[in-house]
Amino acid sequence: MIGHRIRALRQERKLSLSELAERAGVAKSYLSNMERDIQSNPSIQFLEKISEALHVSVDDILQNHPADAASGQTGNDTALDQQWAELVREAMNSGVSKEQFREFLEFNKWRANQK
């Protein structure tokens, strides 16, 4: 979850919710809702502001776990994760909602079961 990742990154940097909101120039209430997964569909602009304030890339926020030997990911897995992250950003930028994406996935599952 993106909100959980933002919270973890904020806490790693020992920033309060208010401090991060101020540094990023976003509403504290919106940031709080993101971290608690009440609001779960952030704009790319919001992610860019938060990533800049946390001194990380947007990819670092989108990815749950960094790829390393301990996680068992290979170079190909990392490349795939970056491709998925780019696809998610592209979908978000084009205005595709999470619900629309879920409907698309459900349709594809249904279509695969029909074959």
TrEMBL record:
<dbReference type="InterPro" id="IPR010981">
    <property type="entry name" value="SinR/SinI_dimer_dom"/>
</dbReference>
<feature type="domain" description="HTH cro/C1-type">
    <location>
        <begin position="6"/>
        <end position="61"/>
    </location>
</feature>
<dbReference type="InterPro" id="IPR050807">
    <property type="entry name" value="TransReg_Diox_bact_type"/>
</dbReference>
<dbReference type="Pfam" id="PF01381">
    <property type="entry name" value="HTH_3"/>
</dbReference>
<feature type="domain" description="Sin">
    <location>
        <begin position="71"/>
        <end position="109"/>
    </location>
</feature>
<dbReference type="Pfam" id="PF08671">
    <property type="entry name" value="SinI"/>
</dbReference>
<dbReference type="InterPro" id="IPR001387">
    <property type="entry name" value="Cro/C1-type_HTH"/>
</dbReference>
<dbReference type="InterPro" id="IPR036281">
    <property type="entry name" value="SinR/SinI_dimer_dom_sf"/>
</dbReference>
<keyword id="KW-0238">DNA-binding</keyword>
<dbReference type="InterPro" id="IPR010982">
    <property type="entry name" value="Lambda_DNA-bd_dom_sf"/>
</dbReference>
<protein>
    <submittedName>
        <fullName>Helix-turn-helix domain-containing protein</fullName>
    </submittedName>
</protein>
